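Posting this for the archive.
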Amino acid sequence: MSHHHDHDHPHEHSGEPRWKHDGVRVIKGDQLDPNTAQTPGMFRQAAINAARVGAQKIWAGTVAIQPNAKTGVHHHGELESVIYVVRGQARMRWGDKLEYVAVAGPGDFIFVPPFVPHQEINASTDEPLECVLVRSDNEAVVVNITDVEPVEKPEEVYWVDPIHKHPNA
């Protein structure tokens, strides 16, 4: 009776073990991809997306926003968004009339559910805001809301990132 291992081990044709090159990926902080549309007032870099790692269901990256930057009022359709504040102070407004407000600082996570009208604001007038962004799809979805008068008008520098386009773009 043979005791040889006759069952197949999952190897790629190259002889490399399965998962070696398409398993867990570490994207170093100094290797983020700035080769994405840039906008005055901020600097954004992609870490996790379809092009870099083949991500199908999420996008992640970093964004640095200048003082006093704000977005227009919008929601992200069915997308869920997570914002992790690394440095600075973020103020979030949300609601049908942006009547609710919350502030997040370093170490805080912000969750934005689907279809919630909201506005992101750098709450500081002199410090940049640095965040990590994660969204639940690799496609950007933004629905701008024009019939709401924002409490804090986005008039200085717009907060624009891979999800939030400049209103005049």
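The beta strands are 42-48, 59-65, 74-75, 81-87, 90-94, 100-104, 109-112, 118-122, 129-135, 143-144. Residues 17 and 65 are 42 Å apart (CA to CA).
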